[in-house]
Amino acid sequence: MKIANHSVVEMHYTLKDADGTVIDSSADSEPLKYLQGVGNIIPGLEKEMLEKAAGDKFTAVIQPEEAYGAQNPELIQTLPRSAFGGVEELEVGMAFRAQSTEGQPIEVEIIDIDGDNVTINGNHPLAGVELHFDIEVVSVREATPEEIDHGHVH
């Protein structure tokens, strides 16, 4: 059976950046299961998965626009240390939940501290990154009506 919309897919993957640094892998764990065609994985990889079958092994290079988007400079801001009231020690790499200007929850990471100025980045950690996947399709089956209705694998 070939992968089509509303297929349940199990796959092993290794994700690397353009320099070959491994970002994530399912090699030492269970295969990733997802429902094709409903946005459970990044759009570029979902497109690459179409028409593949169990046993297929392939590589895919996904550009940022088809993954987590480009870096948005508006999501990088410098704030006064006082904006982090209640947190005594701030360190580069710390993550916080905040609200976007539209009121949506967003995760931000401290990327620089210079005296009383704290620079945060609200971009996804993989925004602007070209993603390189090594994929092995383990299995493909038709989704149940309940899985299709719920939008994910059961």
TrEMBL record:
Coiled-coil boundaries: none
Locations listed in the record: Cytoplasm
Database matches in InterPro entries: PPIase_dom_sf (IPR046357), PPIase_FKBP_dom (IPR001179)
Main location: cytoplasm
Keywords linked to the UniProt accession: Chaperone, Cytoplasm, Isomerase, Rotamase
E.C. no: 5.2.1.8
A GO MF label: peptidyl-prolyl cis-trans isomerase activity
Keyword Ribonucleoprotein set for record: no
The name this protein goes by in its record: Peptidyl-prolyl cis-trans isomerase
The species this protein was found in: Microbulbifer taiwanensis
Organism classification: Bacteria, Pseudomonadati, Pseudomonadota, Gammaproteobacteria, Cellvibrionales
